[in-house]
Amino acid sequence: MAPLLTACIAFACIIGGMLLGIVIRSRLPEHHLTTDSKEIIMLGMGLIATMSALVLALLIESAKTSHDTQSSEVTQLAGDFIRLDGVLNSYGAETHDIRMTIRSVAAGLDGNWPEKTYRLRLGSAEWRIGAAAFYKQIKRLAPDNDLQRSLKAEAFQITLDVGQMRALLIEQSSSSIPVPFLVTLVFWLILIFAVLGLFAPPHATAMVVLAFCALSVSGAIFLILELDRPFDGLIQVSTHPIHDAVLRLGLPDEE
Fold first, then answer.
1. What's the pTM?
2. CB of 27 within 8 A of CB of 235?
3. How many domains does the chain divide into?
4. Is residue 30 assigned to a domain?
5. Which of 30, 51, 105, 240 has a CA positioned 20 to 30 A from the CA of residue 131?
6. Are 3 and 226 within 8 A, CB to CB?
7. 254 lies in some domain
8. Which residue range is the domain that position 202 belongs to?
9. What is the full DSSP assignment across 168-209?
10. How many other C-beta atoms are found inside a 10 Å radius of the C-beta of residue 11?
11. Does 199 reside within a domain?
12. Three-class SS of residue 255?
């Protein structure tokens, strides 16, 4: 479900909870709204508010960690492309075709950044076939001296690292936000706002303030879900590492 839609549903549920509290207030006998009753209810809501804050912090941390991890992996992937190109350049002119393949693969990722296309590109048959052909090209290299043998081994290891990073990015495509945590958080927020509506003064100022509070917590949920989509949406992983790598790959040997 899209983050904006989820946040809107959460906002509607929270506002519904507030309105429910207002309706209940109008029908409750006065002896249910004594000072003692208010104190015990507010103590209970304080506990729920504390748990809500903890869950919200956990969700933010989870989304931020996932976003930072995948951002780091994309940067490392770009760095591996550049390292591999440099090693093959040092090997000799016979690796020119392999270097052009590297540039083509990186350019394909640079031009397919939105999340669905990016994931499809990484997991496509075209990528797998290209990777297999690339491995064979590396294996077919016939070193003439110790330096070339060392460079071939290094190139093969970097190629394995690229494959591992690709697998990680594909496996991390699922959400890092546990749905039960999100549902529980929204339920607790509904309870909190129901109680706020129950005790809120019946005038426009209080209602507007509560509405803005509901909008704020819904906005926090929206930002958490956006962070959890690093290749799409408003808070994307930077494309600059891959783009810069493409510009540097496959340069003529003499450069």
1. 0.75
2. no
3. 1
4. no
5. 240
6. yes
7. no
8. 3-24+35-248
9. HHHHTTS-SS-HHHHHHHHHHHHHHHHHHHHHS-SSHHHHHH
10. 21
11. yes
12. coil
